[in-house]
Recover the amino acids of this structure.
């Protein structure tokens, strides 16, 4: 049994399960925990968030651990600058990820791509046709309104390529968040490429 206090709220927890989790409402950035039992407890605090527009984190890539690069292309394969696109343009985001092989095979990898609200993701699986750009194999792809999450494994020395078809749908200036790739159960294996402002005209 243990108790925790977050802000003005205090709770006592008793569970026969070896694993227990709960969201915490943190007020003022403080959480207090007390073990009222005889068993040793292992606590893990997970925090999630997204930087404000323009306050993005810096790129962080260790080429000896995980390599990642991003490109944007027309449907004909010509590289384009995503910072200024004519309204109505169809284009492709390409991400290449490589395991340099110095730490063995990487499993349970997760690639997170969040796109600005002025861009629309073209879900080719809903169009009843094959993708014009064929992505590498993945364990699962979660395509949502504003993001694509790709889950995969990466053997040593291998490189994978994932494509997302997009349309510059709405005129305006928007922020394109960072692209992030990580091993979900090993936080020493990560790669991040910072975001940027983009414009649809």
């Amino acid at each position: 049994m243990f108790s925790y206090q977050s802000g003005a709220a205090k709770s006592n927890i008793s569970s026969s399960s070896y694993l227990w989790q709960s969201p915490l409402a943190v007020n003022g950035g403080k959480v207090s925990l007390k073990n009222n039992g005889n068993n040793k407890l292992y606590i893990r605090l997970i925090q999630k968030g997204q930087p404000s527009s323009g306050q993005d984190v810096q790129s962080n890539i260790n080429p000896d651990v995980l390599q990642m690069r991003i490109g944007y292309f027309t449907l004909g394969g010509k590289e384009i600058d995503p910072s200024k696109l004519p309204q109505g343009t169809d284009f492709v985001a390409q991400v290449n990820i490589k395991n340099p092989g110095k730490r063995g095979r990487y499993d349970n990898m997760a690639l997170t791509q969040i796109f600005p609200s002025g861009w629309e993701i073209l879900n080719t699986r809903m169009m009843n046709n094959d993708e014009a750009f064929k992505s590498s194999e993945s364990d699962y792809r979660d395509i949502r309104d504003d993001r694509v999450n790709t889950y995969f494994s990466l053997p040593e020395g291998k490189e994978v390529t994932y494509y997302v078809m997009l349309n510059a749908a709405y005129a305006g200036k928007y922020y394109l968040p960072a692209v992030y790739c990580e091993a979900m159960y090993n936080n020493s294996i990560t790669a991040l490429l910072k975001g940027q402002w983009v414009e649809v005209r």
Notes: The chain has two domains: 2-35, 60-200.
